[in-house]
Amino acid sequence: MSNLATALDVVGARWALLIVERLLDGPQRYGDLQRDLGVPTNMLATRLRELEAAGVLSRIPLHHNTRAYVLTERGLALRDAIAALARWGDGHTTG
Amino acid sequence: MSNLATALDVVGARWALLIVERLLDGPQRYGDLQRDLGVPTNMLATRLRELEAAGVLSRIPLHHNTRAYVLTERGLALRDAIAALARWGDGHTTG
DNA sequence: CGTCTTACTTGTATTTTGCAAGTGTCGCTT
DNA sequence: AAGCGACACTTGCAAAATACAAGTAAGACG
After folding, report:
1. Which of B3, B47, B74 to mutate to test the interface with A (most CBs of A within 10 A)?
2. Which of A6, A40, A50, B41 is most buried (most C-beta within 10 Å)?
3. Average pLDDT value for residue range A13-21
4. Any atom of strand C under 7 A from CB of A65?
5. What's the Cα-to-Cα distance from B90 to each of A1, A11, B32, rounded to whole Å?
6. Smallest CA–CA separation between B23 and chain A, in Å?
7. pLDDT per residue over B75-87, tens digit each?
């Protein structure tokens, strides 16, 4: 299995990279992600669980029933890949 | 829609980036991609059609019923993004 | 003509995703 | 203490994407 395939196994699922991109701006709560991305709530819950299990992000309790999602070091390491993809997407629409 | 979302609209589907990665090594025929990637044949046909429509690759006739798939300039521009993702996948190595 | 290779298509089962509604917990108000 | 609203999910079901298996078309070769 190639390194690319390994990466896609973790962040290749739908919404995964978009969630990570959003978290690059700092910790976000569940409702924030939901509103900003327009992702279905069950998909968001599933992805957050998977990404946490993969060590990409972690939960941080805030108050009683609120918590924040924050990228781990491994999650932050996706910054370059996300930036490269976004650059490509930009050039794509412009050209 | 963010640039990342735009990019994922084109190359976010399953197998898409793996196909492009394979083509970075040079033109490949249908059977080559199928064997190397282990992708279902109907998915491969669908992806190749989509990627061609998106201007990522193009078909080049070889003989009677054989042709090669080759990346366009736009497809080649994915090299950085793919390399970044592969690097991340490598550093990940199970967690 | 029949056979082989290559590049697909078609049919159907399975998995993933999307939409709508419901659940549980806690703080706040009354 | 009872009711209400906000938040973070879960659950049920429909739609879409994907996987698996088999079939089709077209040309070279004998």
Report:
1. B3
2. A6
3. 98
4. yes
5. 11, 13, 25
6. 14
7. 999 999 999 999 9
